[in-house]
Amino acid sequence: MFSLQEYGLTQDLLIILLIDLGIAMLLLTLMRYLLGWSAKVNSNHELAEKDNFAFGVSTAGAIAALGIVLTGAITGEAAHNFSTEAIGLTAYGVCGIILIKLGRLLHDKVALNEFNKTESILGGNVSVAIVDAGASIATAIIIRATLLWAEDLTLVTFIAIFSSFIISQLMLVLLTRWREYSFAKRNQGNSFQKALRQGNVALAVRHVGYMIAMGLSFNAASHFIEFLPHAYVSNLIAWLVFSIVMLIVLSVLQGIVKSVVLSKINRTVEVEQQHNVGLASIEMAISISVALILTALMA
Question: Tens digits of per-residue pLDDT, 209-226?
C-alpha cells in the first residue's frame, strides 16, 4: 500500500510545504503589484490593455528575482514549528523585495544614469526592460548565495545579506562601466546607454548574459569564504576581493570561449550595429555557461 512516509513525507512536512507555497504566492503577487504602484501606473492596464511588452519583461524579471531569493530561504532543513517557518520565509521574502527594489533604484540612478529607466519602460522600450530584468535577476542570485552562506535567521544574517548586496551593486556598476568603455572604443565613441535607449535589443540581451554570469560566479564565494558572524568588515572585504577576482577571471574566460565558439564572426558588427538578436542570444548563453562551469568546478 502506498505510504507518504516511505518517501519521507510526514504530515508536518506537507503542512510546511503548503505554508511555504502560500507565502511564496502572496509575495510574488505583491511584487507584481508593487512594480505598478512604484511606477504610478495600473499594472493590469499596462499588461493587458496597453500590451506594454517592456513593462511585462521588467515585471517578469522582478518576479523571477524574488522567486530566486525565496529558494535561498526555503533550501535547507525546515523549521521546528509552523510559525517559525512562516515568519522566517516572510522575513526573507520581504527583505528580498526591499533589496530587489533598492537594487533597481540604484541601477537606475547609478549604472544607467543617462536616462530615466522607468519612463523608457513605460514608453515601451524593450531593450531597457531586458537590462532591468537582468539586473534584478543577477542581484537575486547573489542574495540567494548569501542566504545559503549565512544559513540562519538572525540580525547578523541580514547584515551579511546587505553587505553582499552592496558589493553586488558595485560590481554591476563596474561591469556596466566596462561594457560602456568597450562599446565606445569599438564604435567611435558612441554611447552604450544611448544604444539601449534607441532600442538595441541585441545589445541588451548580450549585456544581460554578462550580468547573470557575474551573479552566478558569486555562488563560489560560499565555498571559499568562511562565514564569521560578527566580523562584518572582514566579510565585506572578503566578498569584495573575491567578486573582483571572479569578475576578471570570468571576463577573460568568456572572451576566450566566445572567440573560439563564434570564430570568423564579427560580433561587434552583428550585435552592436546590425542588432543581431540571435547572435547576442548565443553570446548570452556562452557567458552563462562559462559562469556555471566555473562555479561548478570551484564548488
Answer: 999 999 888 777 667 777
Question: How many domains does the chain divide into?
Answer: 1
SS3 content of the chain, % helix, strand, coil (to 5): 80, 0, 20
- Of the CA atoms within 13 Å of residue 276, those in its CB half-sphere come to 15
Q: DSSP characters for 15-62?
A: HHHHHHHHHHHHHHHHHHHHHHHHHTS-HHIIIIIS--HHHHHHHHHH
Provide the domain limits for residue 122: 4-298
Among 200, 173, 36, 195, residue whose Cα is nearest residue 113 = 173
Backbone angles phi, psi at 147, to 5 degrees: -60, -45
Place of cell 532600442: 199
For 40-64, how does the pLDDT look when each residue is reduced to its tens digit (9 = 90+)?
888 888 888 888 999 999 999 999 9
How far is it, in rounded angstroms, from Cα 135 to Cα 31? 16
Alpha-carbon distance values, 165 to 122, 239, 281, 299 (Å): 27, 10, 27, 21
Q: Could you tell me how far CA 151 lies from the centroid of its own chain?
A: 20
Compute the distance between CA of residue 104 and CA of residue 126 in angstroms, rounded to an integer. Answer: 16
What's the count of helices (H) and strands (E) in the chain, helices before strands?
13, 0
Give the pTM.
0.87
CB 214 within 8 A of CB 171: yes
Q: Which residues of 173-206 are buried (b: 16+ CB within 10 A; e: fewer)?
A: bebbeebbeebeeeeeeeebbebbbebbbbbbbb
Decide: helix, strand or coil at residue 114. coil
Asked if residues 206 and 130 have their Cβ atoms less than 8 Å apart, the reply is: no
pLDDT of residue 8 exceeding 70:
no
> Where does residue 52 rank: exposed (0-12), middle (13-18), buried (19+ CB within 10 A)?
buried
